[in-house]
Amino acid sequence: MTLKMLPFALALALCPMIAGAEQAAATPASETSSDWAAWGGTVALRLNENLLGSMGMSIQSRAGKLPADAARLTDGLNARQALGSELFALRESGSLQFRAERGSFVGFLGGSLQSRGGYVLALEDGSTVPLVDFRLRPNARDPLYLDVVSGDGKVWFYIDKLMYELVRDNRVLAVYTADMRVAPALAARSGHPEMANAPIGDMEILTQVTQQGGGGVKDALGTPSPSHYHGEQVAGQPAGVVYEADLFMQNISVSRMRSSGTTGPGGSGKVVFAPSSTLKNNVNAGTAQVTVPSQGALGTSSALWTAWIPWHGKFSGTFAPYNNDQHPYLIWNMYRINADGSIEQIGRSGVKHAWLTTNGGCASGENFDSHILGRSCSDTYSTGNNDANQDLSFRSEIIPATGQWGRCHSLFDPTCVGSNTNSFPSDDGYVRRMEVNEAQISNTVNPGASYLFDSWYLARQDINIYNSMATVTGTPTFAAGNWTFAGVSNFKLGSVTDRWVENLPANTVAQNSEMAVAEGHTKVAVRAVDLGNGQTTYHYAVHNLDFSRAVTAGAEPNLEVVSNKGFDRFRIALPAGVSVISSKFSDGDLTGSNDWTFSSAGGFLTWTAPAGASLDWGSLYSFSVTTNSAPVAGTSELQPATAGLQSSFTVPILVPGSGDIIFQDGFESP
Fold first, then answer.
1. Looking at residue 659, what is its pLDDT?
2. In sequence order, which residues have a C-beta less than 8 Å from that of residue 90 and are 6 or more positions away?
3. According to the 3-state scheme, what is the secondary structure of 47-65?
4. CB contact at 8 A, 36 and 209
5. What angle do CA 557, 562, 567 make, to 5 degrees?
6. Over the chain, what is the mean pLDDT?
7. How far apart are CA 283 and CA 406, in angstroms?
8. DSSP character at residue 147
9. Strand (E) or helix (H) holding 583
10. What order of strands is seen across the sheet that includes strand 58-63?
11. Among 48, 116, 44, which residue's Cα sits nearest to residue 427?
12. What is the CB neighbour count within 10 angstroms for residue 395?
């Protein structure tokens, strides 16, 4: 077959008259056999040239690249296709063997797929790595990995964290995305051993099944009936016993994805980090069982009956139970705890739209649909996937407390026509990624600081947002010309302020209080540090978790979020006679024009946002003040930026006292 004929041949592969894949579908192998085989199709690669450059490597040449609009085996399906990638054909020779169970791919067995074309990579020393006509071969260590092998048999990369499903009546194995990682041999060859196993890009594989083995039928128990969505009655239980949604974060790792202008701890370049985040649905089926071990009460759901979580890609159609394209959303952030005890949020991501679940480790009968997360099922959104432009939008489009997305006039549907008319937004200078400045993670600029990274999943009607978020610790480290978030460990469910008020240094007391209303949740936390000589520094952290006073237009599925602002004022009462020695504010960025102003007039310590600015959901702002008074029990006040039924909210917190005078909140006047 000539290369020019390939798009036509791929189109024919989808036609009901073609013999190969259709015959395989019509005459499957015995159900006692688990061997399946596939060949042909396409492979799409998106190499992160920024990361390649950090290893002293570049793409010297390309061969056999197909047009971006060449036919793919998933054309015509409501399925995600890798955008911004380079497409190559897969040969119809040899085959890749794999296994399936209950209608789902479960692992590779042997064989290989070979590309038509590929790359020649240039190394810093002038040598090259030939990846033209590379092979994808099962990895000996893990049946869900594929090695990327050059013609001389050397493994230079491998792929993992596959997002997959069998489609077109099991005639196509679709790996929609997978992380492409640096094999140890290439890390050593390039002179960057620290890059071994680091993500370097992502890959899509669409290949046609030529032999069907056993396991092609969906779970023998079938789709449970009636459905198990949030709020639905549990069959056989007393009236009012319903299924409830409770999604857990299970694991987080962190990788550097790209950088710009970086020179090290004394520099001012930008670094982008992204997580690989694994979630797990509640395991309960009538009794309380641990979902995430070693996490105390947060590791066990109070929902005794697990609800399904809908997982439909954006613009893929309208589905139960909300008659829309409902799916979870993912955000991530980085924080620095300074040597003085204050905490700052130094990086925040955009919103990742989830679009498919691989449903690993499900309870029996719960892995029945790759667009529904069943009981006990887990899924991972990897670093490459979380760094994809086609899946990232803005937090301003989400009503977090209700889990609703305003897709009308969103980044992906700017003209509100109900379809994805901006499927691959152009590079945005990292706006929708989580970037930090080198100065913010430098151990020389910030001596004695420690760092936290969190990742959250937002699922509609989730009864407990705190087990859907988790933090890990790590240390930003510059070595061999590159930044990493090294030593990721200490996974802990809950909000970052929960962690900040634990294991306090000497001479420090703390409080962490929750504001929970219909419009969302906010944590107000404080560390009060006794400086001696009668002085105390109060480091306040206001963490807007999912509070927004949303203004909307239209209705789902084409809902528009006109605005979703948070708070624009934070204050506490200042007793008479208490002196303010110093104050500080941080919103985590390095832009002074949007900083909040401070006032100690009128009997209050008040921080006020400039016009148009606000403390919105998913963000933590830091407010510090030093006074000549010790802490006592009191309250703080938060004012929403958008007018509504309630003009302010009070939250208990430690505040500056005044001798033996019992503190009064002072919030009688607006």
1. 58
2. 39, 40, 41, 42, 43, 113, 114, 115, 116, 205, 207
3. ECHHHHHHCCCEEEEEECC
4. yes
5. 125
6. 92
7. 31
8. E
9. strand 580-586
10. 58-63, 118-122, 128-132
11. 48
12. 19
Q: Indicate the length of the chain as a whole number.
A: 670
Phi, psi of 596 (to 5 degrees): -80, 145
Question: Which tokens go with 546?
Answer: 């999912």
pLDDT digits (tens, 9 = 90+) for 487-496: 999 999 999 9
What's the pLDDT tens digit per position in 386-405?
999 999 999 999 999 999 99
Distances in whole angstroms, Cα of residue 308 to Cα of each of 102, 206, 281, 291, 319 = 18, 28, 8, 15, 13
CA distance 581 to 626: 5
Would you state the pLDDT for residue 20?
A: 33
The answer to whether 642 touches 563, Cβ cutoff 8 Å, is yes
For tokens 């649905």, name the residue: 281
Residue type, 603: G
What is the distance between the alpha carbons of residues 53 and 47, in angstroms, rounded to a whole number?
11
- Encoding tokens for residue 144? 């869900």
Q: What is the Cα–Cα distance from 197 to 183, expressed in whole angstroms?
A: 6
Among 611, 615, 609, 614, residue whose Cα is nearest residue 595:
609
The predicted model scores a pTM of: 0.92
Task: Indicate whether 530 pLDDT > 70.
Answer: yes
Which stretch of DSSP H or E encloses residue 114?
A: strand 113-116
Strand duo 597-599 + 604-608: pairing? antiparallel
The predicted pLDDT at position 220 comes to 60
Amino acid at 525: A
The answer for 392, left when phi > 0, alpha when psi is -120 to 50, beta otherwise, is beta
Give the list of residues 6+ apart from residue 608 with CB closer than 8 angstroms, or none.
568, 569, 596, 597, 599
> pLDDT tens for residues 623-662?
999 999 999 999 999 999 999 999 999 999 999 998 543 4
Beta carbons within 10 angstroms of residue 132's beta carbon: 17
DSSP symbols for 286-330: SS--BSSTTSGGGGB-S-SBBPPEE-PPTTS--BTTTTB----EE
Phi, psi of 431 (to 5 degrees): -55, -40
**Pair of tokens at residue 284:** 């309960």
Distance CA 560, CA 608 (A): 28
- State which amino acid sits at residue 382: S
What is the domain partition of the chain in residue ranges?
A: 3-211, 247-494, 501-670
Class of domain 501-670: mainly beta
Query: Do residues 426 and 411 lie in contact, with contact meaning Cβ atoms separated by under 8 Å?
Result: no
How far is it, in rounded angstroms, from Cα 367 to Cα 118?
Answer: 36
What DSSP assignment string belongs to 508-570?
A: EEEEEEEEEETTEEEEEEEEEEEEETTEEEEEEEEEESS--EEEEES-TTS-EEEEEE-EEEE
Q: Tell me the C-alpha distance between 379 and 373, whole Å.
A: 8
Pairing type for strands 146-149 and 104-111 reads: unpaired
Give CA separation, 115 vs 46, 149, 256, 523, in Å.
15, 11, 29, 52
* Strands of 508-517's sheet in order across: 508-517, 520-532, 535-544, 619-627, 580-586
Q: How confident is the model at residue 223 (pLDDT cuts 50, 70, 90)?
A: confident
Residues pairing with 458 in the sheet? 329
Q: Maximum Cα–Cα distance for the chain, whole Å?
A: 90
Per-residue pLDDT reduced to its tens digit, 26-53: 333 333 346 999 999 999 999 999 999 9
Q: Give the Cα separation of 608 and 465 in Å (integer).
A: 28
Half-sphere exposure of 223 (CA within 13 A, CB side): 10
DSSP string computed for 160-173: EEEEEEEETTTTEE
Q: How far apart are CA 514 and CA 510, in angstroms?
A: 14
